[in-house]
Amino acid sequence: LPPFAAANLCPGAEQKVVFITARVHPGETPSSFVCQGIIDFLVSHHPIAKVLRDHLVFKIVPMLNPDGVYLGNYRCSLMGFDLNRHWANPSPWAHPTLHGVKQLVIDMYNNPKINLEFYIDIHAHSTMMNGFMYGNIFEDEERFQRQAVFPKLLCQNAEDFSYSSTSFNRDAVKAGTGRRFLGGLLNDTSYCYTLEVSFYSYILGGPTAAVPYTEEAYMKLGRNVARTFLDYYRLNSLVERPLGTTPKTR
């Protein structure tokens, strides 16, 4: 490794992994812009990005359904499958992207040097406004409460993210989704979410008019998702801040 490589990437080092996927449904183009915002921020020279790279490992799959995107499909893959219903038993032939990603997740889960702490699958929603999340329901009340921490922090960082629209469920229809399947596979220190963002607009505080989403607004939400990990892991004190001018006395 080069001398400037982060210590958490050295051979044998313990790693805290954040796994992010997007665009499993081809028509949900906003998810790509949100994911692009996350990637652009993490590889930037921003002081927060540097701290995040030093302490966390981000694994990002920006397009889970490239064939469907290429064909212009709305929801299905090349073979007509809704890939987000086949996480439980993906076929290497019919669902190759899911099969490969699931195998990578399992390999990391079985590696004692890796703590897979977050899985976030990015989608777009055609009827709801703002950004919001879906999470899982657990019998353990403490685990359920801990799961709510990240979306609450994101709500503080992103004006277009709504915690009130965030919900936790065990809907049988969603059993084959990444969020539901991996939530049942991983241990109680892992948190799995679906991040949804509106196709069209968001509402700021109060009964104001809806603000149309733009590509930049989607990417800003992605940047705010990345920044929220700084708060979650309490790394704020490590961010280098430029020296300010000495305030004048009265």
UniProtKB/TrEMBL annotation:
Keywords: Carboxypeptidase, Hydrolase, Protease. Residues 1-233 form the Peptidase M14 domain. The keyword Cell division does not apply. GO terms for biological process: proteolysis. Pfam families: Peptidase_M14. Its cofactor is Zn(2+). InterPro entries: Cytosolic_carboxypeptidase, Peptidase_M14. The active site is at E196 (proton donor/acceptor). GO terms for molecular function: metallocarboxypeptidase activity; zinc ion binding. Belongs to the peptidase M14 family. This is CBPC6 carboxypeptidase.
